[in-house]
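Exercise: predict the fold of this chain.
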Amino acid sequence: MTDDGEGSVNASPGLLTRLCALALLTASGGLLASACADNESSLFIRQRLAMERTGECTVSCSPTEPAWFQDAIDSAYVGSHSAMLLVGNQIVQRGDSDVLRTETSRVELYEAEVRLSDMEGNPVNDGYVVPINGVVDPGTSSNAGYSCTEVLLIDGATMDDLRVQAAELRRDVEVLATIVVRGRTLGGQEVETAEWSYPVRVCFNCSRCVDTIPPDCCEGASIEECEDLEEIEGTCGGSRGVEDCRNLGRTCANHIASFGL
């Protein structure tokens, strides 16, 4: 016998089906929210921003700004290498001033995972995680929000290894930096980008280095002749150019000899 009165512990099959469906829908809502946070299309790396030398090396954080598609560096003059990346946020806006709802879809960037491999896919290092910073505004309509963040592509230990390889081979060593950027929305949801790869060519002593005249100026000697020298136009990180011995604190030859390669 079945008690259909108040407090009954039994229910009809139809009611059970509806209750289960409601429970499943409620549970799946939480899963969907989590899936949205982990969706690799929510946060993405758009491009490596080109550096403009206008007194200082600067970038503008916009998808309409120029991009570079490969970096070329001389390991004789850099101990590590970083790049400014443009990161996009496609999570829709949640804020509403009419109901005093704060915006929770902004993403605070906090770390990047970087792995290096050669062009055949063989690992160059074990990879590493580096801290980053930046806040990416949410998208509006069909447009993503953008911000930029500087990521260490080649750390000092890896640069030391690549320097030796480039010196022994006497040519460029090309590597592929694969990056994942991670962030957290103001609502507390973790998001990360899909893997994004960027090539970097590393050489050793392939740039032109200029000694001043007299050479004593290379060591920063404060003599009158040094003060009248014209400034040597430098380059921004990620491109090769002319090196000024005054930035090295010694002559070009002494600097190269210090590596013992």
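Check your answer against the key: The first strand starts at residue 43 and ends at 49.
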